[in-house]
Amino acid sequence: AGPSDTFAQLTLPAGHSYLWRVRAVNGYIPDTSDWSEEWQFTIDTSVPQVPVLTAPPNASHTNQNWVNFEWADDSAAAMYHIQIDDDPGFAAPMVVNDSMIGMSPYGYDFQWDGNGRYWWRVRAGSAAHVWSNWSQAWSVTVDTVPPDFLGHIPVHNASNVPRDAKIYYIFTEPVRTDTSLHFSCSPDPGGWSVLRRGDTLEFNHGNLFNWNTHYTFGNVACRDSAGNQVVASGFEFYTVNMTDTTPPRLTVLANGVDMVLGQQFAFECYAKDEHKLNRVHLTYGPAGSGTATGDVDMAPVAGSDSLWRYVIPANHITARGLQCQVWAQDSILSGGLSNITYYPPNPADFYVHAVSFPGGAYSTAFAQDQWHMLSVPGDYTAASLFDMLADDLGAYDKTKWRLFDYQNATLVEQGTGGSGSIRTGQALWLRQRVGASIVLDFQGVHKSYGDRVRSSPAPVPLVPGWSDVGTPLAFEVRWDTTLALSDTASVAGPYHFNGTSWLLPNQVISGTVSPYAGYTFRNNRATNATLRVPYIQALKEKGDGGVAWPEGWQVRLTARSGETSDDSYFGIGIGTSEGLDCWDFPQPPSGFLPAAGCFLLEGERCAADLRPGLGQGQVWEYELAAGGPVVLDIGFSSGLPPESGVWLLDPVRQSSFQLTDGFVYQYLPEPGETARRFKLAAGSEEFVRAAMAGAFGVPAATLMEHGRPNPFNQATTINYQIAAGGPVRMAVYNVAGQLVRTLVDRTQLPGRYGARWDGRDDRGQRAANGVYLVRMTAGGSSSSQRMTLVR
Length: 791
Known about the structure:
The chain is mainly beta. It has 6 domains: 52-142, Immunoglobulin-like (Sandwich), CATH 2.60.40; 149-239, Immunoglobulin-like; 249-356, Immunoglobulin-like (Sandwich); 360-436 and 457-547, no CATH class; 552-696, no CATH class; 703-789, Sandwich (Immunoglobulin-like). 3% of the residues lie in helices and 45% in strands. It contains 3 helices and 68 strands. Strands 26, 27, 30, 31, 32 and 42 form a 6-stranded antiparallel beta sheet that branches. Strands 54-53-56-61-58-59 form a 6-stranded antiparallel beta sheet, with helices on one face. The radius of gyration is 44 Å and the shape is flat.
């Protein structure tokens, strides 16, 4: 520095602490003073965090003049500034505190500023006087003055007050309806609720006032938003002393007027009363819904003494239809009941209006290369299903899609002589190979099903014999509101084909009737029966897995061929009968299944055959129709069979198999064989032995037949016969003589049997390719054969 300077300027990096000192130097005489004492300083340019305000809460009210303003302290801040103003823009703050407030809180007395709304904000500063941005501005309303009470309705000593009248208390500002509100009424009708409408309290009672009664409504004590209390005086009044037993006259004009999807609808009605109407009310929502989209009072139309109107918004009118209920109430109440007229007349009912649309409002995805029954919701008569589908699938082409109708127990292809028409509630069979998942939008449907009261279900005719039907309603309906299981005395069903197999009635009825799906019934009457689908939307789309079989035990037989399967059930069910009953479900038409099984019972073909008890034993007749290789899977669906087991008897192969859960039996039909009849036997050893003898006769010798196929790559079956009962053992060994798999090791009755080897060892591991020796020991003799496994 120069000889006259008392300062020096340096540029130093920020974020560090520095020491400094000074000494004096004589420029003419070599003489220098001692150094001054050392001082320290820190260059800090970091900005503290913006403070987070905590109290009083934003937009809060207080009835105190002294207010503590609080925020969350930041350890990096050394000081704070606060501004308070009655202007949210802080153009000229009434409090500008630039002093170094050490920490929260900061108290301020608004006594001299008066009541009103005030805004406040805070910023934080570092020790180096680097300041953060201002926090967001919060507001607090200081209100130390209680509200004024302006009056009440009805007025004091009012007479002829309607029994459903509401009580109003009016103040100069809004008051709270929380626990700080206290009031009384004598006598008390009960059921009170209080609404705040601006500066007014509305007292509603859930019950009616009594006729010709003197009431005292007590003082009302309440508080404003800041907590200032006001006590409003009570009053007395007298209810009306008049009777009127004539309800209003009500005519709904909306019926028959076209309601269009996507367009608002002016719902109108005529309502008139001999004295005075109180209100006309409309409740509406989607058809079948249990909740209301609109629950509104209609408005009188200017220039008319009886026309009322409400405009339903366009987005409330859906393609499933609109259900509506209207009621009109007069202003004179009598006999403890309101004079109300309903439309429909039943207060629990609705009128379902059909909704028109240009087409394409309904759509569903359709899987590729599977047979499905297809129905179309909506209201139409003899419409062309070809026209509905051609927009998405193209012109009818057997290589791309096929359509069949079940007529007089015969499947008729609609593209080769059929009409291609579909009736309301009808289902047809469709298969498509156009795309992996095609969305069908049914351009031929232009109106939802409706224009009837909701209490009148949609009727779907069931002709004598088998019928494929669907619901005309565009929403899910639970089967248990449509059909009870006991109805199968005259009508069997519903059956449903899921694309690969049939579901039986007890597997279907715990679920829902789905739009676009098809269902099959058999009407045992000589005349039409009717399936009635109610306008009640299901709360859940799927059932809980089906109705349980009766107590006992049941075995499932699943016939598989290609990608399809067919389930049949037999066993014991407590409460069933030896003859046909509601659990012996008729076999649905096999349709397009390459393999279908059924039980033969009293001339009927049944998908299930349950007997009331086992006794000494039971034999079931099972017929399996197949045009190619078929696999029969066994599953125990409910309970356990008897200890003696359940046996499958194949008269063609002259072999029998004891069934276990997961057992698989497969065969290739003999040339010219279209169906094979099996017997299934269960009971005592003597009974099963007799059943086998009746099916096969008693073998004259004990022997093991050649396994088929051989060589094999997946599984092979070895049939054998036992001339005399006793221990039987059959096992598989490798060429080294080591045991690989034990196939049979039990005592067996005389008869013909079969053993299946799936190419695995006793541990469940896959055996290696090669030659194996199968040895059978029975009745003191043994035999063996070679089997070749080639994967």
